[in-house]
């Protein structure tokens, strides 16, 4: 029984990590109707940039002779992500106004490739450990009293995710900008015609998304180091979004948790019968089932087509 | 004035159809019938449920109550592709052409239900598939000829002006050689000349091929001129059914839709 | 001046709808075919065959398949790698279980098996579209790669998990295995590609192709004029998977010689073929070829310039390639979403007027 609880908790924690990344996707999809395949690469890029700011073996140190403390590094990286967001808007999005979703999606695949190559070229492709002073190791209290192994880092990630979700949910529902974002997601041309500046909105959204990517990058990076596989998270996010609904912030969380738990439980309990590594495809199969049964996800909006 | 038509028996009978979307009732207990070779108009204010009615007839919407009888077969719901195979064709308010294809290809898709050669013959092309393609091409060319759109055969329809797109859409519906043709506001957005052309085409279709036509139209001049019978809808309910003259003088209809009858401004 | 159509008028619908209606086009394509079949085999060597020609042919075939599904029928698929794996492993099992079987038949049967698998994973397309369908195909991709990795029967329980293509002959010439000549392997692939390209062109300009394009452009309207979406979509999946399966079988048997699922058929393979189709032009047979040529030549060109010419490290060239591909995808999507095929068409338009400006 204890083992089962541990598996579930481990799954929940993994799920939180997925949710963090999925959040970035939801933001961009909610506001621009684009599924940003490059979101994972954003997280990777943010992590790489952060590492560069705070480590002695980066460009920053070479150029300026000192490293930034963690909090300043984060702010600097945020600045970098805003610049990236602005460039993406300027070079890519502006020219693709009102194109079909599939074209936009494929352009983000191109973006992902480009940013990844850029990241590799600038920062090198070896794994970089991220030491931000976040707590690590097991949560001793739980370990001692209930014999439960829970990593402190993952708890921190869960708290961060909860805060982020609340802030974002409020942002979308209550603010003027949030409403503008939803308008843009619906119809670019209509939004333009009521005076919403697409460009500003997009830069805002992609920056916020960049921030979420940074948080995700920090969490994942602290856990397993900044590495290439971070960019593949985009692929895992798809099932999360299917379950939760592409346009729902709480859905991203719930979806992430379900996928996280489902994967872990399947791997631990069913894995040994089939040689293991079920995690590779379990999420997608689950998503597939959902697609057939409830395509808009648990919290998404149903699309009605009129002729 | 409607000309002499050889009007037959009931081709389409709509019986007590009710349709709701969530809480909104789009159609309430609508019944009417359309006779073969007839030109039948559905009129009413915007939002009356006219397009929804057409959508029920050709299977896109599934009514909650009531039945539709077409060519003797009664059913409530039908899959759109089956309705098409039964012999119902239609055009749409917002043009539903295949923007990535040429005019010729668009109209050829209208013949799809009649072409039978399977994928292996298609891959070979030489022989039966080619012969079939050419036969149907000949039929489509007749339609193109009829609608006077030869010049734009190979143009991608996405680049055509609105009026021509509507004509191509009509061509696609005609290519299917339907028994019943549903036209959803075929003259919307057209100027006088284009309207006259479209009217002429509709009448010619009915005349030459005997196709039964059901049309939704707002231009009262057109409706009164070419229809044999009319049904009036308002807020999903039927107000009146009868010949144009009967409907024109019906008080409920005037109150709801036509307004005070002025002396023949639109004739 | 040379490319004028003046004086070439068609007197039958058949002539009007031929694949190459302009005489100059027919001449040109004839030249290419003669060069490909007769001239090249004399000059071919292993490097050219492996690095460029067979590489190109195999990917062109896979791109044809993906184009049919995504370009003509509008169903997004990220499962190309997985389906190529099905073709490869099917051919491996057939060839090892039935050593007497005619090799061509084995390849075609592998395609058929892949078609069945494709139809199965294509069933969700009846209820879902767009990215949602992409996810379904991702499920196929990851599941299939896992399957071929884990289940020993597929790789004949070899301890390395790899499959190796045994030597096989066609008309007396070895086409697989280390002893096969590059000319034989090249001609074998070329024949498949030419026949399949012709079949594809015939299909897409006929009834089936039109129903696919109708589904792509507006599936609701397509259904309303009588096209059965089930039939059309599943046929697209079947034909597409058949092509991709054959490509996978050729990829493994003739080009690679040996394969291991996580490397040869992973998600990046799916992206590679998708890029070919985007750059070449969605919904264009010619585009599949142009895109394949492009994607095969770019890495080689980059490597030659950067590594051999300018002395960069191989890794740097790889990163540059990735960046270049990414930017090219974006470039094409913005500037010419119909890819190289449209650029080619525009070029031909200009050629018709040449040397006059208008």
Topology:
The complex is a heterotrimer of chains A (307), B (267) and C (358).
Chain A: H1 2-32, H2 39-54, H3 59-64, H4 70-91, H5 101-123, H6 140-146, H7 152-174, H8 176-186, H9 188-193, H10 198-224, H11 233-244, H12 249-270, H13 279-293
Helix pairs in contact in A: 1-7, 1-8, 1-10, 1-11, 1-12, 2-4, 2-5, 2-10, 4-10, 7-8, 7-10, 8-10, 11-12, 11-13, 12-13
Chain B: E1 10-21, E2 24-35, E3 39-43, H1 50-57, E4 65-70, E5 73-75, H2 80-86, E6 88-90, H3 103-109, H4 119-124, H5 128-147, H6 162-175, E7 180-184, H7 192-209, E8 212-216, H8 220-226, E9 229-234, E10 237-242, H9 244-248, H10 251-258
Parallel strand pairs in B: 3-8, 3-9, 6-7, 7-8
Antiparallel strand pairs in B: 1-2, 1-4, 4-5, 9-10
Helix pairs in contact in B: 3-6, 5-6
Chain C: H1 13-16, H2 23-43, H3 46-72, H4 80-97, H5 103-122, H6 130-150, E1 163-164, E2 169-170, E3 173-174, H7 182-204, H8 207-224, H9 229-256, E4 258-259, H10 261-264, H11 267-280, H12 285-309, H13 314-335, H14 339-353
Antiparallel strand pairs in C: 1-4, 2-3
Helix pairs in contact in C: 2-7, 3-7, 3-9, 3-11, 3-12, 4-5, 4-6, 4-9, 5-9, 8-9, 11-12, 12-13, 12-14
Describe the structure.
The complex is a heterotrimer of chains A (307), B (267) and C (358). By secondary structure, chain A is an all-alpha fold. Chain A contains 13 helices and no strands. Helix content of chain A is 72%, strand content 0%. Chain A starts with a helix and ends in a 14-residue tail after the last helix. The model of chain A has no long low-confidence stretch (mean pLDDT 79). Chain B is of the alpha/beta class and 267 residues long. Helices cover 37% and strands 24% of the residues of chain B. The mean pLDDT of chain B is 87. Chain C has a two-stranded antiparallel sheet. In chain C, strands 2-3 form a two-stranded antiparallel ribbon. Chain C starts with 12 loop residues before the first helix and ends in a 5-residue tail after the last helix. With 358 residues, chain C is mostly helical. In chain C, helix 5 crosses helix 9 and helix 12 crosses helix 14. Chain C contains 14 helices and four strands. In chain C, 73% of the residues lie in helices and 2% in strands. Chain C is globular, with a radius of gyration of 21 Å. Chains in contact: A-B, A-C, B-C. The interface between A and C is large, with 47 and 43 residues.
């Amino acid at each position: 029984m204890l083992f089962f609880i541990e598996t579930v908790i481990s799954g929940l924690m993994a799920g939180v990590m997925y949710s963090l990344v999925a959040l970035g996707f939801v933001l961009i999809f909610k506001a621009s109707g684009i599924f940003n395949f490059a979101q994972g690469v954003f997280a990777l890029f943010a992590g790489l940039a952060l590492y560069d700011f705070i480590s002695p073996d980066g460009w920053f140190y070479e150029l300026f002779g000192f490293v930034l403390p963690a909090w300043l590094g984060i702010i600097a990286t945020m600045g970098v992500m805003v610049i990236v967001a602005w460039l993406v808007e300027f070079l890519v999005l502006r020219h693709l106004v009102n194109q079909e979703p599939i074209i936009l999606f494929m352009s983000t695949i191109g973006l992902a490739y480009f940013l990844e190559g850029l990241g590799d070229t600038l920062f090198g492709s070896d794994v970089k450990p991220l030491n931000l002073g976040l707590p690590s190791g097991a949560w001793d209290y739980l370990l001692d009293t209930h014999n439960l192994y829970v990593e402190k880092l993952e708890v921190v990630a869960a708290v961060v995710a909860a805060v982020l979700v609340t802030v974002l949910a409020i942002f979308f529902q209550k603010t003027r900008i949030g409403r503008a974002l939803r308008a843009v997601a619906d119809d670019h041309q209509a939004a333009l015609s009521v005076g919403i500046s697409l460009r500003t909105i997009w830069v805002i959204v992609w920056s916020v998304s960049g921030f979420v990517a940074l948080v995700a990058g920090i969490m994942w990076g602290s856990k397993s180091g900044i590495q290439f596989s971070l960019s593949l998270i985009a692929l895992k996010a798809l099932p999360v979004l299917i379950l939760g609904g592409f346009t729902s912030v709480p859905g991203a969380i719930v979806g992430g948790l379900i996928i996280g738990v489902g994967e872990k439980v399947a791997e631990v309990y069913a894995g040994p019968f089939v040689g293991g590594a079920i995690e590779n495809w379990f999420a997608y199969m689950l998503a597939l089932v959902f697609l057939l049964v409830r395509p808009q996800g648990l919290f998404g909006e149903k699309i009605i087509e009129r002729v | 004035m409607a000309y002499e038509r050889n009007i037959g028996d009931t081709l389409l009978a709509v019986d007590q159809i009710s349709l709701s979307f969530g809480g909104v009732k789009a159609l309430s207990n609508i019944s009417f019938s359309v006779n073969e070779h007839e030109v039948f108009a559905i009129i009413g204010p915007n939002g009356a449920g006219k397009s929804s009615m057409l959508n029920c007839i050709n299977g896109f919407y599934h009514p909650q109550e009531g039945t539709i009888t077409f060519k003797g077969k009664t059913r409530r719901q039908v899959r759109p592709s089956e309705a098409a195979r039964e012999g119902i064709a239609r055009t749409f308010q917002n043009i539903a052409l295949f923007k990535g294809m040429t005019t010729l290809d668009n109209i050829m898709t209208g013949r799809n239900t009649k072409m039978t050669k399977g994928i292996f013959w298609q891959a070979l092309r030489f022989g039966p598939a080619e012969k079939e393609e050419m036969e149907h091409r000949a039929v489509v060319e007749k339609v193109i000829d009829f609608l006077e759109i030869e010049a734009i055969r190979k143009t991608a329809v996405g680049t055509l002006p609105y009026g021509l797109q509507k004509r191509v859409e009509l061509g696609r519906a005609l290519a299917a050689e339907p028994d019943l043709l549903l036209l959803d506001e075929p003259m919307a957005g057209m100027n006088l000349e284009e309207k006259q052309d479209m009217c002429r085409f509709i009448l010619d279709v009915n005349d030459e091929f005997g196709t039964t036509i059901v049309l939704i139209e707002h231009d009262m001049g057109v409706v009164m001129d070419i229809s044999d019978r009319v049904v009036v809808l308002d807020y999903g309910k039927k107000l009146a059914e009868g010949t144009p003259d009967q409907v024109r003088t019906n008080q409920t209809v005037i109150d709801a839709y036509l307004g005070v009858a002025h002396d023949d401004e639109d004739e | 001046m040379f490319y004028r159509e003046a004086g070439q008028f068609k007197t039958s619908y058949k002539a009007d709808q031929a694949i190459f209606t302009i005489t100059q086009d027919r001449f040109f394509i004839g030249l290419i075919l003669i060069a490909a079949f007769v001239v090249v085999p004399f000059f071919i060597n292993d490097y050219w065959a492996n690095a460029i020609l067979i590489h190109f042919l195999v990917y062109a075939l896979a791109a044809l398949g993906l184009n049919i599904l995504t370009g003509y029928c509008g169903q997004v698929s990220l499962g190309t790698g997985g389906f190529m794996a099905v073709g490869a492993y099917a051919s491996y099992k057939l060839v090892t279980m039935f050593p007497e079987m005619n090799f061509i038949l084995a390849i075609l049967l592998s395609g058929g098996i892949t078609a069945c698998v494709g139809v199965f994973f294509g069933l969700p397309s009846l209820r879902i579209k767009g990215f949602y369908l992409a996810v379904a195909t991702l499920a196929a991709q990851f599941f299939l790669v896992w399957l071929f990795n884990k289940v020993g029967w597929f790789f004949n329980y070899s301890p390395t998990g790899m499959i190796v293509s045994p030597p096989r002959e066609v008309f007396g010439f070895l086409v697989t295995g280390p002893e096969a000549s590059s000319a034989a392997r090249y001609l074998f692939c070329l024949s498949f590609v030419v026949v399949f390209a012709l079949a594809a062109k015939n299909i897409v300009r006929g009834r089936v192709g039109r129903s696919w394009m109708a589904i792509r452009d507006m599936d609701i309207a397509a259904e309303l004029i009588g096209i059965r979406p089930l039939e059309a979509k599943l046929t697209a999946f079947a034909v597409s998977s058949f092509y991709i399966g054959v490509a996978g079988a050729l990829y493994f048997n003739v080009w690679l010689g040996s394969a291991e699922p996580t490397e040869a058929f992973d998600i990046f393979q799916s992206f590679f073929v998708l890029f070919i189709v985007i750059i070449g032009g969605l919904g264009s047979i010619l585009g599949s070829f142009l895109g394949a040529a492009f994607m095969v030549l770019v890495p080689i060109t980059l490597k030659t310039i950067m590594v051999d010419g300018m002395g960069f490290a191989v890794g740097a060239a790889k990163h540059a390639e990735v960046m270049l591909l990414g930017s090219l995808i974006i470039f094409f999507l913005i500037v010419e979403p119909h890819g190289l095929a449209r650029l080619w068409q525009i070029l031909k338009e200009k050629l018709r007027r040449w040397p006059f400006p208008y």
